[in-house]
From TrEMBL:
<dbReference type="GO" id="GO:0006013">
    <property type="term" value="P:mannose metabolic process"/>
</dbReference>
<dbReference type="GO" id="GO:0004559">
    <property type="term" value="F:alpha-mannosidase activity"/>
</dbReference>
<dbReference type="InterPro" id="IPR027291">
    <property type="entry name" value="Glyco_hydro_38_N_sf"/>
</dbReference>
<dbReference type="Pfam" id="PF09261">
    <property type="entry name" value="Alpha-mann_mid"/>
</dbReference>
<dbReference type="GO" id="GO:0009313">
    <property type="term" value="P:oligosaccharide catabolic process"/>
</dbReference>
<feature type="domain" description="Glycoside hydrolase family 38 central">
    <location>
        <begin position="121"/>
        <end position="191"/>
    </location>
</feature>
<keyword id="KW-0378">Hydrolase</keyword>
<dbReference type="Pfam" id="PF01074">
    <property type="entry name" value="Glyco_hydro_38N"/>
</dbReference>
<dbReference type="InterPro" id="IPR037094">
    <property type="entry name" value="Glyco_hydro_38_cen_sf"/>
</dbReference>
<dbReference type="InterPro" id="IPR011330">
    <property type="entry name" value="Glyco_hydro/deAcase_b/a-brl"/>
</dbReference>
<dbReference type="InterPro" id="IPR028995">
    <property type="entry name" value="Glyco_hydro_57/38_cen_sf"/>
</dbReference>
<keyword id="KW-0326">Glycosidase</keyword>
<dbReference type="InterPro" id="IPR015341">
    <property type="entry name" value="Glyco_hydro_38_cen"/>
</dbReference>
<protein>
    <recommendedName>
        <fullName>Glycoside hydrolase family 38 central domain-containing protein</fullName>
    </recommendedName>
</protein>
<dbReference type="InterPro" id="IPR000602">
    <property type="entry name" value="Glyco_hydro_38_N"/>
</dbReference>
């Protein structure tokens, strides 16, 4: 990476405007070193907009920041300093219309790419619950979209809330399990709530889709034109069964209807011959 602002391209080809913090998220923490921080950050900036993060882990905003900004703007008339949110910074980058460098792949240092690429934790349930919730959210979105195309209301607020909770759990100090036990009581509640709400949302979409499927008619047991057997054509009703595929590729399912066939749904006057 040669610049702090770039387009990051994912494995699926999707892209997102990204900012790399050359000095970490404490670049503006020391208010008496803003000159040096600005000089260092300016070397990497892709535009005239420079992000100078101010703060540290679990640290409240410094009361001295507003005055430090006013002092800077007084002594640097050609370089305006603003207190903004990350969203406002990215909006400013987009408004420049600059063609940013495109970066692909994992953003690991080449020398450290194989050293602890993931996190080992004794709280395995956090990672497992997180992955389970991610899978439920993906399925809920997929089938909510299909149901919406068929006329259902899209559960925008429910899925938006789910995304916020998923991203909260994915925070590097949470999903890694590196805190004390008391911290994760809230995470357990969030995961439990996510599973219940996403399962409910998914079931609603599946029920709506199933309601749009024509399951009428009867099943014909293909004995017609079979010279080996002199049996009448057999038609019999079955309770409809719908199998929905959540994978992004075609799958072949074998549905076991033995319970249907053995419960008197087929006339006992006939035998069923399969694969003759």
């Amino acid at each position: 990476i040669t610049q702090s602002d770039f387009i990051w391209k994912g494995l699926d080809g999707s892209t997102i405007l990204t900012h790399w913090m050359p000095l970490g998220y404490r670049a503006g923490l020391n208010l008496d070193r803003l000159e040096q921080s600005f000089s260092d950050l300016d070397k990497y900036a892709a535009t005239s907009h420079i992000l100078m993060p101010c703060g540290s882990g679990s640290m409240p905003p410094q009361a001295e920041i507003p005055q430090a900004v006013r002092d800077w703007n007084t002594t640097h008339p050609g370089i305006e300093m603003k207190i903004v949110t990350p969203k406002e910074f990215f909006q400013a980058l987009e408004q420049t219309k600059k063609k940013f460098e495109v970066v692909e792949g994992e953003l690991y240092d080449n020398e450290l790419v194989d050293v602890f690429p993931q996190v080992c934790t004794s709280r395995l349930w956090i990672v497992q619950s997180s992955r389970e919730c991610e899978g439920l959210l993906m399925a809920a979105e997929e089938f909510a979209t299909i149901a919406w195309l068929l006329g259902a209301d899209y559960p925008t607020s429910e899925l938006h809330e789910a995304w916020e909770n998923i991203l909260f759990i994915a925070f590097h100090d949470i999903v890694t399990g590196c805190g004390v036990d008391e911290i994760y009581e809230e995470v357990k509640e969030i995961c439990s709530s996510l599973k219940a709400k996403l399962t409910h949302s998914l079931n609603q979409s599946l029920s709506y889709i199933a309601g749009k499927v024509d399951t009428g008619g009867e099943v014909f047991c293909g004995l017609r034109n079979n010279p080996k057997l002199c049996l009448p054509e057999i038609y019999f009703p079955l309770h409809p069964r719908i199998k929905l595929n959540t994978e992004p590729y075609v799958r072949i399912f074998i549905l076991n209807l033995s319970d249907e066939l053995n419960s008197g749904k087929v006339s006992e006057n006939y035998n069923l011959f399969m694969d003759i």
